[in-house]
Amino acid sequence: MSDSTTAPASPVVLEAWFDLQCPDCFQALDDVRALREKYGDRLDVQLRHFPLAKHKHAYAAAQAAEEAVDQGKGWPYAEALLARTAELGERGEPVLMEVATELGLDAEEFDTALIDGRHLLTVDADEAEGKAIKVTGTPTYVIGGERLDGGQSQDGLRERIEGIADRLLTA
Protein backbone atom coordinates (compact mmCIF):
# COMPACT_ATOMS: atom_id res chain seq x y z
CA MET A 1 0.00 0.00 0.00
CA SER A 2 1.38 3.37 -0.87
CA ASP A 3 0.15 4.83 2.41
CA SER A 4 2.69 5.25 5.16
CA THR A 5 2.68 6.54 8.70
CA THR A 6 5.08 9.43 8.21
CA ALA A 7 6.45 11.83 5.64
CA PRO A 8 8.31 10.20 2.73
CA ALA A 9 11.62 11.70 3.86
CA SER A 10 11.81 9.47 6.95
CA PRO A 11 15.29 8.07 7.50
CA VAL A 12 14.27 4.45 8.14
CA VAL A 13 11.60 2.50 6.25
CA LEU A 14 9.89 -0.57 7.67
CA GLU A 15 7.89 -2.48 5.09
CA ALA A 16 5.14 -4.55 6.69
CA TRP A 17 3.96 -7.27 4.29
CA PHE A 18 0.43 -8.10 5.43
CA ASP A 19 -2.58 -10.12 4.34
CA LEU A 20 -5.62 -8.18 5.54
CA GLN A 21 -7.52 -11.38 6.34
CA CYS A 22 -4.65 -12.83 8.39
CA PRO A 23 -5.19 -13.13 12.17
CA ASP A 24 -1.40 -13.07 12.73
CA CYS A 25 -1.27 -9.69 10.98
CA PHE A 26 -3.94 -8.42 13.36
CA GLN A 27 -1.77 -9.55 16.28
CA ALA A 28 1.23 -7.83 14.66
CA LEU A 29 -0.56 -4.47 14.86
CA ASP A 30 0.45 -4.25 18.52
CA ASP A 31 4.10 -4.32 17.43
CA VAL A 32 3.49 -1.80 14.64
CA ARG A 33 1.77 0.59 17.06
CA ALA A 34 4.59 0.22 19.60
CA LEU A 35 7.19 0.91 16.92
CA ARG A 36 5.31 4.00 15.73
CA GLU A 37 5.10 5.25 19.31
CA LYS A 38 8.77 4.64 20.02
CA TYR A 39 10.20 6.08 16.81
CA GLY A 40 7.59 8.58 15.68
CA ASP A 41 8.46 10.16 12.35
CA ARG A 42 11.94 8.62 12.33
CA LEU A 43 10.38 5.31 11.19
CA ASP A 44 8.19 5.17 8.09
CA VAL A 45 5.98 2.07 8.38
CA GLN A 46 4.70 1.11 4.94
CA LEU A 47 1.95 -1.46 4.52
CA ARG A 48 2.60 -3.78 1.58
CA HIS A 49 0.12 -6.31 0.25
CA PHE A 50 0.74 -10.03 0.22
CA PRO A 51 -2.69 -11.70 0.03
CA LEU A 52 -2.42 -15.40 0.76
CA ALA A 53 -4.32 -17.90 -1.39
CA LYS A 54 -5.81 -19.55 1.71
CA HIS A 55 -7.68 -16.34 2.55
CA LYS A 56 -10.52 -16.05 0.05
CA HIS A 57 -11.16 -12.32 0.59
CA ALA A 58 -7.59 -11.08 1.11
CA TYR A 59 -7.08 -9.95 -2.47
CA ALA A 60 -10.29 -7.87 -2.45
CA ALA A 61 -9.33 -6.54 0.98
CA ALA A 62 -5.98 -5.34 -0.41
CA GLN A 63 -7.77 -3.51 -3.23
CA ALA A 64 -10.17 -2.00 -0.71
CA ALA A 65 -7.26 -0.78 1.40
CA GLU A 66 -5.78 0.94 -1.65
CA GLU A 67 -9.07 2.75 -2.23
CA ALA A 68 -8.97 3.80 1.42
CA VAL A 69 -5.49 5.22 0.76
CA ASP A 70 -6.91 7.25 -2.13
CA GLN A 71 -9.58 8.55 0.21
CA GLY A 72 -7.03 9.47 2.91
CA LYS A 73 -7.58 6.68 5.43
CA GLY A 74 -5.29 3.82 4.42
CA TRP A 75 -3.91 2.79 7.80
CA PRO A 76 -7.16 3.36 9.73
CA TYR A 77 -8.96 1.17 7.18
CA ALA A 78 -6.33 -1.58 7.30
CA GLU A 79 -6.37 -1.62 11.10
CA ALA A 80 -10.17 -1.68 11.29
CA LEU A 81 -10.34 -4.49 8.74
CA LEU A 82 -7.67 -6.54 10.51
CA ALA A 83 -9.74 -6.28 13.69
CA ARG A 84 -12.49 -8.10 11.78
CA THR A 85 -10.54 -10.91 10.07
CA ALA A 86 -12.86 -13.63 11.37
CA GLU A 87 -15.92 -11.71 10.22
CA LEU A 88 -14.33 -11.10 6.82
CA GLY A 89 -13.71 -14.84 6.51
CA GLU A 90 -17.30 -15.67 7.41
CA ARG A 91 -19.25 -12.92 5.64
CA GLY A 92 -16.92 -11.91 2.85
CA GLU A 93 -16.77 -8.72 0.91
CA PRO A 94 -19.77 -6.92 2.46
CA VAL A 95 -17.46 -6.40 5.45
CA LEU A 96 -15.15 -4.33 3.22
CA MET A 97 -17.96 -1.88 2.51
CA GLU A 98 -19.13 -1.81 6.13
CA VAL A 99 -15.67 -0.81 7.35
CA ALA A 100 -15.49 1.89 4.67
CA THR A 101 -18.84 3.29 5.74
CA GLU A 102 -17.88 3.20 9.42
CA LEU A 103 -14.79 5.28 8.63
CA GLY A 104 -16.80 7.82 6.65
CA LEU A 105 -15.32 6.92 3.28
CA ASP A 106 -17.25 7.57 0.06
CA ALA A 107 -19.10 4.26 -0.16
CA GLU A 108 -20.23 4.74 -3.75
CA GLU A 109 -16.68 5.45 -4.93
CA PHE A 110 -15.42 2.57 -2.81
CA ASP A 111 -17.88 0.15 -4.42
CA THR A 112 -16.99 1.43 -7.89
CA ALA A 113 -13.28 0.94 -7.19
CA LEU A 114 -13.86 -2.68 -6.18
CA ILE A 115 -15.91 -3.32 -9.31
CA ASP A 116 -13.67 -1.57 -11.84
CA GLY A 117 -10.44 -3.04 -10.47
CA ARG A 118 -8.53 0.25 -10.45
CA HIS A 119 -6.20 -1.01 -7.70
CA LEU A 120 -5.42 -4.44 -9.19
CA LEU A 121 -2.04 -3.36 -10.55
CA THR A 122 -0.90 -1.96 -7.19
CA VAL A 123 -1.83 -5.14 -5.34
CA ASP A 124 -0.32 -7.34 -8.07
CA ALA A 125 2.91 -5.30 -8.01
CA ASP A 126 3.21 -5.66 -4.24
CA GLU A 127 2.56 -9.39 -4.45
CA ALA A 128 5.14 -9.83 -7.22
CA GLU A 129 7.74 -7.82 -5.30
CA GLY A 130 7.01 -9.85 -2.18
CA LYS A 131 7.58 -13.09 -4.07
CA ALA A 132 10.79 -11.68 -5.55
CA ILE A 133 12.20 -11.01 -2.09
CA LYS A 134 10.99 -14.42 -0.89
CA VAL A 135 8.05 -13.40 1.27
CA THR A 136 6.20 -16.65 1.90
CA GLY A 137 3.86 -15.77 4.76
CA THR A 138 2.46 -12.89 6.69
CA PRO A 139 3.35 -10.82 8.52
CA THR A 140 6.83 -10.34 7.07
CA TYR A 141 8.91 -7.23 7.62
CA VAL A 142 11.75 -5.69 5.65
CA ILE A 143 13.97 -3.09 7.30
CA GLY A 144 17.45 -2.05 6.26
CA GLY A 145 17.48 -4.77 3.61
CA GLU A 146 16.79 -7.50 6.16
CA ARG A 147 13.70 -9.69 5.86
CA LEU A 148 12.11 -10.83 9.12
CA ASP A 149 9.43 -13.52 8.90
CA GLY A 150 6.71 -13.13 11.50
CA GLY A 151 4.48 -15.78 9.96
CA GLN A 152 6.01 -18.58 12.02
CA SER A 153 6.39 -16.72 15.29
CA GLN A 154 6.30 -13.11 16.34
CA ASP A 155 8.24 -13.77 19.54
CA GLY A 156 11.14 -11.35 19.75
CA LEU A 157 10.33 -9.82 16.38
CA ARG A 158 9.72 -6.28 17.66
CA GLU A 159 13.04 -6.36 19.51
CA ARG A 160 14.84 -7.47 16.33
CA ILE A 161 13.19 -4.65 14.36
CA GLU A 162 14.13 -2.15 17.08
CA GLY A 163 17.73 -3.35 17.03
CA ILE A 164 17.96 -2.82 13.27
CA ALA A 165 16.16 0.53 13.45
CA ASP A 166 18.42 1.75 16.25
CA ARG A 167 21.49 0.72 14.25
CA LEU A 168 20.22 2.47 11.10
CA LEU A 169 19.24 5.63 12.97
CA THR A 170 22.68 5.99 14.55
CA ALA A 171 24.60 5.18 11.35
Structure commentary:
There is one protein chain. The protein is of the alpha+beta class. It contains 8 helices and 4 strands. It has helices at residues 23-39, 58-70, 74-82, 85-91, 94-102, 107-116, 120-132, 157-170; strands at 12-18, 43-49, 140-143, 146-149. Strands 2-1-3-4 form a 4-stranded mixed beta sheet. A hairpin with a 2-residue loop joins β3 and β4 (146-149). The longest helix is centred in the N-terminal third of the chain and has 17 residues, at 23-39. It starts with 11 loop residues before the first strand and ends with a helix. The relative contact order is 0.20. The model has no long low-confidence stretch (mean pLDDT 91).
Short description:
The chain is α+β, with helices and mostly antiparallel strands and 171 residues long.
Structural class: alpha+beta
Largest sheet: 4 strands, mixed
Mean pLDDT score: 91
Beta strands, count: 4
Order of helices and strands: EHEHHHHHHEEH
Radius of gyration over C-alpha positions, nearest whole angstrom:
15 Å
Strand content: 5-15%
Number of helices: 8
Q: Within the largest sheet, what's the order of strands? A: 2-1-3-4
Low confidence ranges: none
Gap between N and C termini, in Å?
28 Å
State the shape: globular
State the share of residues found in helices, binned by percent. Answer: 40-55%
